[in-house]
Design goal:
Radius of gyration: 16 Å
Number of helices: 1
Largest sheet: none
Shape: globular
Number of strands: 0
Structural class: mainly alpha
Order of helices and strands: H
Length: 84
């Protein structure tokens, strides 16, 4: 009868393969079965993050923009992080 959450909602649009009936978006954030529509927010997260959703949601939008613009991902790197 009543549901409430103190957390920001996320994880309502599963990302996965096209043959998975529970998947809503593919790995490029495209809505499966709908041409020209993408989801680029926290709804595609597999689980609730430990912190605020703002930064991960921005990152998701940036990654979706890279897919839309056809930008290739950066090459993998094993460089040690620089610490001052």
């Amino acid at each position: 009868d009543h549901a409430e959450s103190a957390y920001h909602p996320c994880g309502t649009c599963k990302m996965g393969r096209k043959d998975d009936p529970m998947s809503v978006v593919d790995p490029q954030c495209r809505v499966i079965g709908v041409d020209g529509l993408r989801i680029a927010d926290s709804s595609i997260f597999p689980r609730v993050t430990n912190g605020n959703l703002n930064a991960p949601s921005i990152m998701t939008g940036e990654k979706a923009a890279d897919h839309i613009l056809g930008r290739m991902p950066l090459a993998p790197s094993n460089q040690e992080p620089w610490i001052n």
